[in-house]
Amino acid sequence: MANGNLYIVATPIGNLNDITLRAIEVLKQVDLIAAEDTRHSRKLLDAFAIETRLTSVHDHNEADRANYLCGLLAQGQDIALISDAGTPLISDPGYRLVRAVREAGFEVVTIPGPCAAVAALSVAGLPTDRFLFVGFLPAKQQARRTALEILQGESATLVFYESPKRIIETLQDMAQVFGAEREAAIAKELTKAFETVKTATLEALLVWLQEDEHRQRGEFVVLVKGKEALSGEILIDAKVLRAVELAREHMPLKKACALVSELTGVAKNQLYDAALKQSNA
Ligand code: SAM
């Protein structure tokens, strides 16, 4: 008997009409649907008269469930993975399962569809040629600041998910680390009744959010435009600069630049200039 397939199925991020025809077809045909929260997903499935059996796969049982699900695939059963909303694996469980299933030699098939990050990028008017998906920042302020500092020099558009509980604190930290004038966007409640997309400086976005408490509710994607090079300035990856900073704790700056240059291939003098600029900033 042929092996079964694992289908990774995207579901709506708000508006139920965004489900794809293929998603409905696959969810009806598979033998089992693995879902993050079975009660939540039952409502979605009921809306489309999908009667397939559900089983739970979440962050805490994913490794164990992978063995069980591989067993079913070996018996020829087809399985779909869905998350509470959007594309599984994107700030959602599934990575360990997909990896285990692929390593066991079974097919993993994508049924693409909504994803809040891509939806936000497509409407905000910030550059989309290069973007870096960061997802959720740490909840604790010190760790969040450190995470943002590492991204400070990044030139690609940055994409974050944030909860309404922390949206103000996060924007305040972003304004401090990236500068209040850095251009950014808030994409809130996408595809839902109160969808709002606002592109402005971090400072203006904070004022806008603080003007009205209702604006602080809902689901948010925050986009931050990447750092722009001043004319003549060469952008160096933030991780490379961080390596110089760490090396500098143990040796003079010139030596630290030579060492990191050797490891990364970035020119020594460029590293030196950038490190000096950073410490004078
Ligand atoms: N897998 C999902 C996807 O493909 O976008 C993301 C899941 S993650 C657990 C949930 C976060 O995604 C929310 O906290 C919010 O930051 C973002 N999000 C989900 N739906 C959204 C929507 N309709 N509008 C804005 N952001 C949304």
The radius of gyration is: 22 Å
Number of domains: 3
What is the molecular shape?
Answer: globular
**DSSP, total strands:** 10
Annotated CATH homologous superfamily of the largest domain: Tetrapyrrole methylase, N-terminal domain
Q: What's the tally of helices? A: 11
Helix content: 40-55%
CATH architecture of the largest domain: 3-Layer(aba) Sandwich
How many angstroms separate the termini? Answer: 65 Å
Overall pLDDT metric: 94
What small molecules does the structure contain? S-adenosylmethionine
Largest sheet: 5 strands, parallel
Strand order of the largest sheet: 3-2-4-1-5
Descriptive report:
The chain is of the alpha/beta class and 281 residues long. The chain has 3 domains: 5-114, Cobalt-precorrin-4 Transmethylase, domain 1 (3-Layer(aba) Sandwich); 117-224, Methyltransferase, Cobalt-precorrin-4 Transmethylase, Domain 2 (2-Layer Sandwich), CATH 3.30.950.10; 238-280. Helices cover 42% and strands 17% of the residues. It has 11 helices and 10 strands. It has helices at 21-29, 38-47, 62-74, 95-103, 116-124, 141-151, 167-178, 202-211, 238-248, 253-264, 268-280; strands spanning 6-9, 32-35, 53-56, 79-82, 108-111, 131-136, 157-162, 183-188, 196-201, 220-224. It has a 5-stranded parallel sheet, with helices on both faces. A 5-stranded mixed sheet has the order 6-7-10-8-9. Helix 3 (62-74) packs parallel to helix 4. The longest helix is centred in the first third of the chain and has 13 residues, at 62-74. It is globular and about 65 Å long. The termini are far apart. The model has no long low-confidence stretch (mean pLDDT 94). S-adenosylmethionine binds at residues 13-14, 83, 85-87, 90-92, 115-117, 161-163, 187-192, 219-221.
